[in-house]
């Protein structure tokens, strides 16, 4: 049956066109119920024992997704009209709903009501799209009830008062979410219910919010129409709010419109904005701006005592919170100040699920077991969240997950609901789960569909592989790998053969992952979503299943493996004469750790062929490295921490800075060269759809902290180019042997993130990699642990004519979306690794109070941030203990010092200080490593 939809649209030239779209309707779309006597039950998803089948409206899905994911909610019909509406309104919830509908263990069935002749509805004259969709939901619910007969109750779940009334009038069974959950007889499920808003049903169950009974705490957010107009006129400024990790009452909004960061100080000026929200900001009068960024470090207990202010009538009487800095002079000089402002509206929320625990409290008496509790996130940047729970006694000693539902201007704290329990507070496995959840890391076991894509074990190179004309047999080469100790997912190996003419043949051989991970398969889809493997202190979260990462693809010694090779002919001066690319079969002769490879090169008694190959590679790598540096590549530094872990308890036994050796740099140099060569090859063939990696040049604002620090210690840094900065860093040598590394660490922190991008989205000058001083770069050398490399392998294979380019490469918006996801996953993996280090640092020092030396890296009004070289740890040191009066510390911005007003004591940036380190718990369930001056 064919329905026609027609509408008119205006072209860019101003012509009016009539557009007619055909809409096909069918009568053979199955209902999905096992008990149905009409439909084919082979495709049924709803259980045969279901006494009630649920039909959900769109708002229930959008607001109650945490409840729907609970196994107690099943036998659910998801209408296509609801699915489409959810997709348009919230992609994250849509993806979670799709996961529920595709999970074979859950009873969720998608019914195409928009294409069934008995459930499709046309919009009526004057009817809004929302009202039309609500009517379509009621029509489909009614159809299900008639279709299945009286044996099964079909129940519409809606919190919309008007929709529920109309459903009842039409003879449809309808209930609110809360009423239905109560009927299940599982009181704990009520903790998952998001309380309805004032437009919805059931407000009698929500606490009285009438203004007459409660004071206004925050200003109302401006409507989007006013925000848009204000942004256009330059009254407001848009940007992403970032909360200071050391002070949750201090935030920054990077604004392109004024070319600077706007300081947002105090909860009042943040106005209910969360870290990561895109906000509209109004600048405060200049007399309320702050000198530089030298705000306070907030004490862990500050949140308890922060004043809650009434809403100011204007910017002139905006609240001044207790965490305001003391300036070095009695008056503020607007010329040298940084812009300060307040949030007037939220453009895009970044609310997520948060991990933490409930604030300790006594068990309430009576009240039907319902308790109002405050949730404290492990992330100090997140404010406390008010929740209702019926299981307080079971949650007080647990790490739990809570989601934010709303934040009314009458409430000091946002409101949310309990989602689930993670485990016991303080348990290492629990705290590791928290790290993974907070950083959106998928650590679930691989599904049966994904594992079904793997070749059977044991796997070995076949005759077909050896006879493949597109694959070269390189088993005769002396190939070897050099990796961190204990590495099992070995995805790169090298060879270096001296040629009769004095040149060298050098090969980089990368595991041929795409031979096993085919485009469009469940295995490929899973890898693309995970994006990268995640390395924690004591475990690894794989992007691909272990049979691939540790066996089939891993380039282990004395085993034939498939590879993708980049092979150069190089002169003794490391000049590349020729480059070729080939799929290959290799047989690694040795697997070495960096320490073992270094020991071989350093032992003058060893003259065997393998050691000679290593030394030749190292000689070439040093030349290549120096050439890169001469070109302007930066040699930066980071505080990488290495733990020695007990193999039985998995507790840390020792901690220290990761040591970089020549062997590390040698391998890095050839991996960089392979990545550059492959980038050139794929871009030559696919100029619009290559996946590349760029490192944007740092802005002046980014480099300002480094320049301010350098100037304070009499160091002249030239940041006009990467070459100028590299040369300046080389000259930054002091009496302290650690001085240069510290300056390089500070420089690293001023750099923007390197990112993946689709070549068709930018112009060639924007492809540049600032840190490597390279016009082109990509990732090719780690396909076992990075999905970006998998994509690049497919591009290179297509460029060589081995395979056709998958159709996805013709969809540039999809490629851009993949690149965005890779950047998101890469960043999250980094954050998870750092959080894991922080967790194990706490475990290590819990029973080991330590005295050591540290360097001051940031100055604040009431203390400073120090870096501890021995352990690679950074943290705040307070000059004024909580509650102590008469501190009178002031900041000297120009000389980067903090000093007593009487000048008796001062501390300056990069100064060495002696500190005491121990684990304390100033707030329940929030342990921290406390650093104090000795």
Automatic annotation (TrEMBL):
<dbReference type="GO" id="GO:0016075">
    <property type="term" value="P:rRNA catabolic process"/>
</dbReference>
<keyword id="KW-0694">RNA-binding</keyword>
<dbReference type="InterPro" id="IPR002716">
    <property type="entry name" value="PIN_dom"/>
</dbReference>
<dbReference type="InterPro" id="IPR029060">
    <property type="entry name" value="PIN-like_dom_sf"/>
</dbReference>
<keyword id="KW-0539">Nucleus</keyword>
<protein>
    <submittedName>
        <fullName>Uncharacterized protein</fullName>
    </submittedName>
</protein>
<keyword id="KW-0269">Exonuclease</keyword>
<dbReference type="InterPro" id="IPR041505">
    <property type="entry name" value="Dis3_CSD2"/>
</dbReference>
<dbReference type="GO" id="GO:0004519">
    <property type="term" value="F:endonuclease activity"/>
</dbReference>
<feature type="domain" description="PIN">
    <location>
        <begin position="52"/>
        <end position="165"/>
    </location>
</feature>
<keyword id="KW-0540">Nuclease</keyword>
<dbReference type="GO" id="GO:0003723">
    <property type="term" value="F:RNA binding"/>
</dbReference>
<keyword id="KW-0378">Hydrolase</keyword>
<dbReference type="Pfam" id="PF17215">
    <property type="entry name" value="Rrp44_S1"/>
</dbReference>
<dbReference type="Pfam" id="PF17849">
    <property type="entry name" value="OB_Dis3"/>
</dbReference>
<dbReference type="GO" id="GO:0006364">
    <property type="term" value="P:rRNA processing"/>
</dbReference>
<dbReference type="Pfam" id="PF13638">
    <property type="entry name" value="PIN_4"/>
</dbReference>
<keyword id="KW-0460">Magnesium</keyword>
<dbReference type="InterPro" id="IPR033771">
    <property type="entry name" value="Rrp44_CSD1"/>
</dbReference>
<keyword id="KW-0698">rRNA processing</keyword>
<dbReference type="GO" id="GO:0000175">
    <property type="term" value="F:3'-5'-RNA exonuclease activity"/>
</dbReference>
<dbReference type="Pfam" id="PF00773">
    <property type="entry name" value="RNB"/>
</dbReference>
<dbReference type="InterPro" id="IPR050180">
    <property type="entry name" value="RNR_Ribonuclease"/>
</dbReference>
<dbReference type="InterPro" id="IPR033770">
    <property type="entry name" value="RRP44_S1"/>
</dbReference>
<dbReference type="GO" id="GO:0000177">
    <property type="term" value="C:cytoplasmic exosome (RNase complex)"/>
</dbReference>
<keyword id="KW-0271">Exosome</keyword>
<dbReference type="GO" id="GO:0071031">
    <property type="term" value="P:nuclear mRNA surveillance of mRNA 3'-end processing"/>
</dbReference>
<feature type="domain" description="RNB">
    <location>
        <begin position="471"/>
        <end position="802"/>
    </location>
</feature>
<dbReference type="Pfam" id="PF17216">
    <property type="entry name" value="Rrp44_CSD1"/>
</dbReference>
<dbReference type="InterPro" id="IPR012340">
    <property type="entry name" value="NA-bd_OB-fold"/>
</dbReference>
<feature type="compositionally biased region" description="Acidic residues">
    <location>
        <begin position="298"/>
        <end position="307"/>
    </location>
</feature>
<comment type="similarity">
    <text>Belongs to the RNR ribonuclease family.</text>
</comment>
<dbReference type="InterPro" id="IPR022966">
    <property type="entry name" value="RNase_II/R_CS"/>
</dbReference>
<dbReference type="InterPro" id="IPR001900">
    <property type="entry name" value="RNase_II/R"/>
</dbReference>
<dbReference type="GO" id="GO:0000176">
    <property type="term" value="C:nuclear exosome (RNase complex)"/>
</dbReference>
<feature type="region of interest" description="Disordered">
    <location>
        <begin position="297"/>
        <end position="336"/>
    </location>
</feature>
